[in-house]
Amino acid sequence: MCKMISTIGMSREDWLQIRKSGIGGSDAGAICGLNPYSSPMSVYRDKTCEDISDTDNEAIRQGRDLEDYVAKRFTEAAGLKVRRSNMLYRSKEHPFMIADIDRLIVGEDAGLECKTASAYNADKWKDGTVPMHYLIQVSHYMAVTGRKAWYIAVVILGKEFKFARIERDDAMISNLIAIEEAFWNNHVISKIIPPPDGSKICDEVLEKYFHRARKDRTVPLIGFDKKLDRRTELLNQIAQLEQEQKQIEQEVKLYMQDNESAVSDNYRVTWTNIDTTRLDIKRIKAEKPEIYQDFAKTTSSRRLTIKAAS
Fold this sequence. Notes:
Elements: E1 2-6, H1 12-20, H2 25-31, H3 40-48, H4 58-65, H5 67-78, E2 82-83, E3 87-91, E4 98-99, E5 103-105, E6 110-117, H6 132-145, E7 149-156, E8 160-167, H7 170-189, H8 200-209, H9 225-256, E9 261-263, E10 268-270, H10 281-287, H11 289-295
Parallel strand pairs: 6-7
Antiparallel strand pairs: 1-3, 2-5, 3-4, 5-6, 7-8, 9-10
Protein backbone atom coordinates (compact mmCIF):
# COMPACT_ATOMS: atom_id res chain seq x y z
CA MET A 1 0.00 0.00 0.00
CA CYS A 2 2.89 2.38 0.65
CA LYS A 3 6.56 2.74 -0.21
CA MET A 4 8.92 3.19 2.74
CA ILE A 5 12.08 5.29 2.59
CA SER A 6 14.61 4.98 5.41
CA THR A 7 15.43 8.23 7.18
CA ILE A 8 18.46 6.80 9.01
CA GLY A 9 21.42 8.93 8.00
CA MET A 10 19.23 11.11 5.78
CA SER A 11 20.35 14.74 5.68
CA ARG A 12 17.98 17.54 6.60
CA GLU A 13 18.22 18.86 3.03
CA ASP A 14 17.27 15.48 1.52
CA TRP A 15 14.35 15.20 3.94
CA LEU A 16 13.11 18.65 2.95
CA GLN A 17 13.46 17.77 -0.73
CA ILE A 18 11.27 14.69 -0.32
CA ARG A 19 8.79 16.75 1.68
CA LYS A 20 8.42 19.11 -1.30
CA SER A 21 7.56 16.18 -3.57
CA GLY A 22 4.17 15.48 -2.00
CA ILE A 23 1.48 16.45 0.47
CA GLY A 24 2.33 15.64 4.09
CA GLY A 25 0.18 15.27 7.16
CA SER A 26 0.68 18.85 8.34
CA ASP A 27 -0.22 20.09 4.82
CA ALA A 28 -3.53 18.22 4.74
CA GLY A 29 -5.42 20.42 7.19
CA ALA A 30 -4.14 23.56 5.45
CA ILE A 31 -5.37 22.35 2.05
CA CYS A 32 -8.78 21.71 3.61
CA GLY A 33 -8.82 25.26 4.99
CA LEU A 34 -8.86 24.03 8.60
CA ASN A 35 -5.33 24.83 9.81
CA PRO A 36 -5.21 28.15 11.70
CA TYR A 37 -1.44 28.35 11.15
CA SER A 38 -1.27 27.60 7.43
CA SER A 39 -3.32 27.85 4.22
CA PRO A 40 -3.67 26.36 0.73
CA MET A 41 -1.60 29.29 -0.56
CA SER A 42 1.18 28.53 1.91
CA VAL A 43 1.28 24.87 0.86
CA TYR A 44 1.27 25.88 -2.80
CA ARG A 45 4.25 28.18 -2.31
CA ASP A 46 6.13 25.52 -0.36
CA LYS A 47 5.62 22.85 -3.02
CA THR A 48 6.30 25.02 -6.09
CA CYS A 49 9.15 27.30 -5.02
CA GLU A 50 12.62 26.32 -6.15
CA ASP A 51 14.26 27.00 -2.79
CA ILE A 52 14.35 24.30 -0.14
CA SER A 53 12.97 26.26 2.80
CA ASP A 54 13.53 25.09 6.37
CA THR A 55 10.85 27.05 8.19
CA ASP A 56 11.43 26.98 11.92
CA ASN A 57 10.35 28.99 14.93
CA GLU A 58 10.36 28.66 18.69
CA ALA A 59 7.03 26.81 18.82
CA ILE A 60 8.15 24.31 16.17
CA ARG A 61 11.51 23.86 17.91
CA GLN A 62 9.87 23.19 21.28
CA GLY A 63 7.42 20.75 19.73
CA ARG A 64 10.25 18.85 18.07
CA ASP A 65 12.44 18.81 21.19
CA LEU A 66 9.55 17.70 23.43
CA GLU A 67 8.40 14.90 21.13
CA ASP A 68 10.27 12.27 23.15
CA TYR A 69 8.75 13.58 26.38
CA VAL A 70 5.22 13.47 24.95
CA ALA A 71 5.78 9.91 23.73
CA LYS A 72 7.06 8.91 27.20
CA ARG A 73 4.02 10.43 28.90
CA PHE A 74 1.80 8.54 26.45
CA THR A 75 3.38 5.18 27.29
CA GLU A 76 2.86 5.91 30.98
CA ALA A 77 -0.75 7.02 30.61
CA ALA A 78 -1.94 4.55 27.97
CA GLY A 79 0.14 1.54 29.00
CA LEU A 80 1.25 1.05 25.40
CA LYS A 81 4.75 0.77 24.00
CA VAL A 82 5.84 2.88 21.05
CA ARG A 83 8.75 2.86 18.66
CA ARG A 84 10.23 5.14 16.06
CA SER A 85 9.59 4.05 12.48
CA ASN A 86 12.69 5.76 10.99
CA MET A 87 10.83 5.80 7.69
CA LEU A 88 9.16 8.20 5.31
CA TYR A 89 6.03 6.71 3.75
CA ARG A 90 4.64 7.35 0.26
CA SER A 91 1.30 5.99 -0.94
CA LYS A 92 1.67 3.71 -3.97
CA GLU A 93 -1.90 4.32 -5.10
CA HIS A 94 -1.67 8.09 -4.53
CA PRO A 95 2.07 8.93 -4.75
CA PHE A 96 1.45 12.62 -4.06
CA MET A 97 0.61 11.60 -0.46
CA ILE A 98 3.57 11.25 1.93
CA ALA A 99 3.82 10.77 5.68
CA ASP A 100 6.55 11.41 8.24
CA ILE A 101 5.11 9.98 11.45
CA ASP A 102 6.19 10.43 15.06
CA ARG A 103 5.76 6.90 16.47
CA LEU A 104 4.21 3.49 15.81
CA ILE A 105 2.33 1.56 18.49
CA VAL A 106 3.92 -1.78 19.34
CA GLY A 107 1.43 -4.63 19.01
CA GLU A 108 -1.29 -2.49 17.40
CA ASP A 109 -2.07 -1.49 13.84
CA ALA A 110 -1.83 2.16 14.90
CA GLY A 111 0.46 5.16 15.15
CA LEU A 112 1.02 8.08 17.50
CA GLU A 113 1.15 11.81 16.83
CA CYS A 114 2.85 13.88 19.56
CA LYS A 115 1.76 17.48 20.15
CA THR A 116 2.52 20.34 22.50
CA ALA A 117 0.12 23.21 23.10
CA SER A 118 0.21 26.50 24.93
CA ALA A 119 -1.95 26.87 28.01
CA TYR A 120 -3.75 29.62 26.07
CA ASN A 121 -4.98 26.95 23.64
CA ALA A 122 -6.14 24.52 26.34
CA ASP A 123 -9.80 25.18 25.48
CA LYS A 124 -9.24 23.66 22.03
CA TRP A 125 -8.61 20.31 23.76
CA LYS A 126 -11.46 20.64 26.28
CA ASP A 127 -13.72 17.64 27.05
CA GLY A 128 -11.84 15.28 24.76
CA THR A 129 -11.97 17.59 21.74
CA VAL A 130 -9.17 17.27 19.20
CA PRO A 131 -8.56 20.25 16.85
CA MET A 132 -9.94 19.45 13.42
CA HIS A 133 -6.68 20.01 11.52
CA TYR A 134 -5.04 17.37 13.73
CA LEU A 135 -7.87 14.93 12.97
CA ILE A 136 -7.22 15.58 9.29
CA GLN A 137 -3.50 15.05 9.85
CA VAL A 138 -3.88 11.61 11.41
CA SER A 139 -6.50 10.62 8.83
CA HIS A 140 -3.88 11.46 6.21
CA TYR A 141 -1.41 9.19 7.99
CA MET A 142 -3.93 6.35 8.07
CA ALA A 143 -4.63 6.89 4.37
CA VAL A 144 -0.92 6.61 3.51
CA THR A 145 0.04 3.78 5.85
CA GLY A 146 -3.24 1.82 5.79
CA ARG A 147 -3.34 1.59 9.58
CA LYS A 148 -6.63 1.20 11.42
CA ALA A 149 -6.22 3.80 14.17
CA TRP A 150 -4.07 6.66 15.36
CA TYR A 151 -3.44 8.15 18.78
CA ILE A 152 -2.91 11.84 19.46
CA ALA A 153 -1.07 12.80 22.65
CA VAL A 154 -0.69 16.39 23.78
CA VAL A 155 1.16 18.10 26.59
CA ILE A 156 -0.54 21.39 27.38
CA LEU A 157 2.50 23.23 28.70
CA GLY A 158 2.37 23.88 32.42
CA LYS A 159 -1.13 22.45 32.73
CA GLU A 160 -1.93 18.85 31.74
CA PHE A 161 -1.43 15.83 29.50
CA LYS A 162 -4.13 14.26 27.32
CA PHE A 163 -4.41 11.61 24.67
CA ALA A 164 -7.14 10.30 22.38
CA ARG A 165 -7.59 7.35 20.03
CA ILE A 166 -8.91 8.13 16.54
CA GLU A 167 -10.47 5.24 14.66
CA ARG A 168 -10.08 4.96 10.91
CA ASP A 169 -12.96 6.61 9.04
CA ASP A 170 -12.89 5.42 5.44
CA ALA A 171 -15.48 7.96 4.29
CA MET A 172 -13.41 10.83 5.68
CA ILE A 173 -10.25 9.36 4.16
CA SER A 174 -11.89 9.05 0.72
CA ASN A 175 -12.96 12.70 0.85
CA LEU A 176 -9.52 13.75 2.02
CA ILE A 177 -7.79 11.88 -0.80
CA ALA A 178 -10.08 13.55 -3.33
CA ILE A 179 -9.35 17.02 -1.91
CA GLU A 180 -5.59 16.43 -1.84
CA GLU A 181 -5.56 14.95 -5.34
CA ALA A 182 -7.50 17.90 -6.74
CA PHE A 183 -5.14 20.36 -5.06
CA TRP A 184 -2.04 18.53 -6.25
CA ASN A 185 -3.18 18.18 -9.86
CA ASN A 186 -5.09 21.44 -10.28
CA HIS A 187 -2.58 23.70 -8.52
CA VAL A 188 0.84 22.20 -7.78
CA ILE A 189 1.34 20.17 -10.97
CA SER A 190 -0.39 22.67 -13.24
CA LYS A 191 1.24 25.66 -11.46
CA ILE A 192 -2.13 27.40 -11.11
CA ILE A 193 -2.27 29.69 -8.08
CA PRO A 194 -5.05 28.93 -5.55
CA PRO A 195 -7.68 31.62 -4.89
CA PRO A 196 -6.20 34.68 -3.09
CA ASP A 197 -6.68 34.70 0.68
CA GLY A 198 -5.43 38.14 1.71
CA SER A 199 -2.21 36.80 3.24
CA LYS A 200 1.33 38.11 2.92
CA ILE A 201 2.27 34.77 1.39
CA CYS A 202 -0.26 35.38 -1.39
CA ASP A 203 1.44 38.71 -2.14
CA GLU A 204 4.77 36.92 -2.37
CA VAL A 205 3.40 34.29 -4.77
CA LEU A 206 1.77 36.89 -7.02
CA GLU A 207 4.96 38.99 -7.04
CA LYS A 208 6.99 35.93 -7.98
CA TYR A 209 4.74 34.86 -10.85
CA PHE A 210 3.97 38.31 -12.23
CA HIS A 211 7.08 40.25 -11.26
CA ARG A 212 7.31 42.43 -14.37
CA ALA A 213 4.45 44.22 -16.10
CA ARG A 214 4.34 44.20 -19.87
CA LYS A 215 4.10 47.91 -20.61
CA ASP A 216 1.39 49.38 -22.79
CA ARG A 217 -0.81 46.30 -22.37
CA THR A 218 -4.33 46.77 -20.99
CA VAL A 219 -7.06 44.24 -20.28
CA PRO A 220 -10.75 44.94 -19.67
CA LEU A 221 -11.60 44.90 -15.96
CA ILE A 222 -14.65 42.64 -15.86
CA GLY A 223 -16.54 41.55 -12.75
CA PHE A 224 -14.63 43.60 -10.17
CA ASP A 225 -16.69 46.79 -9.78
CA LYS A 226 -18.60 45.55 -6.70
CA LYS A 227 -15.42 44.24 -5.09
CA LEU A 228 -13.62 47.53 -5.70
CA ASP A 229 -16.61 49.46 -4.33
CA ARG A 230 -16.32 47.30 -1.20
CA ARG A 231 -12.57 48.01 -1.09
CA THR A 232 -13.32 51.76 -1.06
CA GLU A 233 -15.78 51.26 1.82
CA LEU A 234 -13.17 49.28 3.77
CA LEU A 235 -10.51 51.95 3.22
CA ASN A 236 -12.87 54.61 4.55
CA GLN A 237 -13.70 52.47 7.60
CA ILE A 238 -10.00 51.76 8.22
CA ALA A 239 -9.19 55.49 8.00
CA GLN A 240 -11.92 56.29 10.54
CA LEU A 241 -10.75 53.54 12.90
CA GLU A 242 -7.11 54.62 12.60
CA GLN A 243 -8.09 58.21 13.41
CA GLU A 244 -10.04 57.02 16.46
CA GLN A 245 -7.05 54.92 17.55
CA LYS A 246 -4.71 57.86 17.10
CA GLN A 247 -7.04 60.16 19.08
CA ILE A 248 -7.08 57.76 22.02
CA GLU A 249 -3.27 57.56 21.96
CA GLN A 250 -3.02 61.35 21.84
CA GLU A 251 -5.36 61.68 24.82
CA VAL A 252 -3.15 59.28 26.80
CA LYS A 253 -0.03 61.26 25.83
CA LEU A 254 -1.65 64.52 26.90
CA TYR A 255 -2.58 62.94 30.23
CA MET A 256 0.96 61.57 30.76
CA GLN A 257 2.73 64.79 29.66
CA ASP A 258 6.46 64.34 30.45
CA ASN A 259 6.04 61.18 32.57
CA GLU A 260 7.58 58.04 31.09
CA SER A 261 4.95 55.54 32.25
CA ALA A 262 1.40 55.27 33.51
CA VAL A 263 -0.20 52.28 35.23
CA SER A 264 -3.75 51.10 35.96
CA ASP A 265 -5.19 47.79 37.14
CA ASN A 266 -5.48 46.62 33.52
CA TYR A 267 -2.79 48.45 31.54
CA ARG A 268 0.77 49.67 31.70
CA VAL A 269 1.59 52.44 29.21
CA THR A 270 5.11 53.67 28.45
CA TRP A 271 6.05 56.71 26.39
CA THR A 272 9.80 56.40 26.21
CA ASN A 273 12.67 58.28 24.61
CA ILE A 274 14.11 56.67 21.47
CA ASP A 275 17.16 58.02 19.63
CA THR A 276 17.44 56.96 16.00
CA THR A 277 20.39 57.52 13.67
CA ARG A 278 19.79 57.43 9.91
CA LEU A 279 21.86 58.27 6.89
CA ASP A 280 20.83 61.52 5.22
CA ILE A 281 20.41 60.01 1.75
CA LYS A 282 19.31 63.29 0.19
CA ARG A 283 22.46 65.05 1.41
CA ILE A 284 24.76 62.21 0.37
CA LYS A 285 23.23 62.19 -3.10
CA ALA A 286 23.74 65.95 -3.40
CA GLU A 287 27.23 66.30 -1.86
CA LYS A 288 28.79 62.87 -2.53
CA PRO A 289 27.11 61.56 -5.69
CA GLU A 290 29.96 59.13 -6.45
CA ILE A 291 29.55 57.45 -3.03
CA TYR A 292 25.79 57.34 -3.49
CA GLN A 293 26.21 55.61 -6.87
CA ASP A 294 28.67 53.07 -5.44
CA PHE A 295 26.24 51.97 -2.74
CA ALA A 296 22.91 52.54 -4.48
CA LYS A 297 20.85 49.40 -5.05
CA THR A 298 17.93 49.21 -7.44
CA THR A 299 15.09 46.80 -6.69
CA SER A 300 12.19 45.99 -8.95
CA SER A 301 8.59 45.49 -7.86
CA ARG A 302 5.08 46.32 -9.00
CA ARG A 303 2.73 48.89 -7.46
CA LEU A 304 -1.04 48.45 -7.60
CA THR A 305 -2.92 51.72 -8.01
CA ILE A 306 -6.72 51.87 -8.07
CA LYS A 307 -8.60 55.01 -9.07
CA ALA A 308 -12.19 55.72 -9.95
CA ALA A 309 -12.75 56.04 -13.70
CA SER A 310 -13.21 59.64 -14.82
